[in-house]
Amino acid sequence: GPCYCDQACTRTLDCCHDYAQACPVIPCVVSQWSAWSGCAEPCKTTYRIRTRHIIQEPRNRGEACPALEERAGCVEYWTQQGTECQQSLIPALITTGGFGKARKKRAAADGNERAGYCVEFQLVAIAPACLHSHHSYTHWMRYLREGHAVCVECQHPALHPLSQHCYGDGTGSQQNQLLHWQAVGNHRCKGTWRRIRQLDTCSCPSVHSFLFI
After folding, report:
1. Residues 6+ apart with CB under 8 A from 103
2. Residue span of the structural domain in which 33 resides
3. Contact by Cβ (8 Å): 148, 125
4. Hey, which residues does 179 pair with through a beta bridge?
5. Where does residue 150 rank: exposed (0-12), middle (13-18), buried (19+ CB within 10 A)?
6. Of 82, 117, 146, which residue sits at a domain end?
7. Of 47, 82, 117, which residue sits at a domain end?
8. pLDDT tens-place string over residues 74-102
9. For residues 75 and 81, what is the distance between their CA atoms, to the nearest angstrom?
């Protein structure tokens, strides 16, 4: 009767007599990842891409090929012409203020601590993904609530040494202009807020205090 050249034949006992020599299982083989591309668009939160190609196609029901393209979040603060993006267009990247204590201790130990400042914002819109962050390092995102005022601190090393500000702090924005922010650790947690004022120190409760990255 007929014989077969696949992995299933070893269970159904109908392999061809030369199966071991003529029908070996050959898995897919892919190349190493390429270098990451630049951001898809400057001055906004987009993505970058890296790719790989197939070196050997799978045969005889060998393991299928994995994904050949991978994307990651990306932000660039300079245009292709080399000019700095307008501050109002740069989304603020934030994390919980709980990291601020460790950051200040480290900066003090290095002798590099610079005087920072704090910016108060009123949260306008928040993506639903902020409320569904299940990892321990993303629990702080649940304290983001529409309509609440929050304090975001700009401190070393996020404080740019030349401009003396943090990217995304809304410097130069118009009154009541909607500005964008994104949480570090969950790229789907993002939204908009309005800048209220800049202060030398933060006065918000700890659960409503955050850091510029």
Report:
1. 155, 156, 157, 211
2. 1-82
3. no
4. 193
5. buried
6. 82
7. 82
8. 767 666 676 666 655 567 888 887 665 55
9. 16
Separation between Cα atoms, residue 9 and residue 61, nearest integer Å? 11
| Alpha-carbon span 180 to 44, nearest angstrom | 9
d(CA 63, CA 104): 50
Domain shared by 100 and 203, yes or no: yes
Do residues 75 and 98 share a domain? Answer: no
User: Tens of pLDDT along 56-77?
Assistant: 999 877 888 999 999 887 767 6
Backbone φ and ψ of 185, nearest 5°: 110, -15
Are the C-beta atoms of 114 and 154 separated by less than 8 Å? no
Strand pairing category for 190-199 and 29-30? unpaired
Instruction: Give me the mean pLDDT over the 95-122 stretch.
Output: 66
* Residue 108 sits in the same domain as residue 77: no
Same domain for 159 and 96: yes
Pair (103, 73) in one structural domain: no
Residues 114 and 177 reside in one and the same domain: yes
For residue 32, name the pLDDT band (cuts at 50, 70, 90): very high
**Cα 89 to Cα 98: distance, rounded to the nearest angstrom:** 27
208, 122: one domain: yes
Q: Say which range, 27-36, 38-47, 55-64, 93-102, has the weakest mean pLDDT.
A: 93-102
- Domain total of the chain: 2
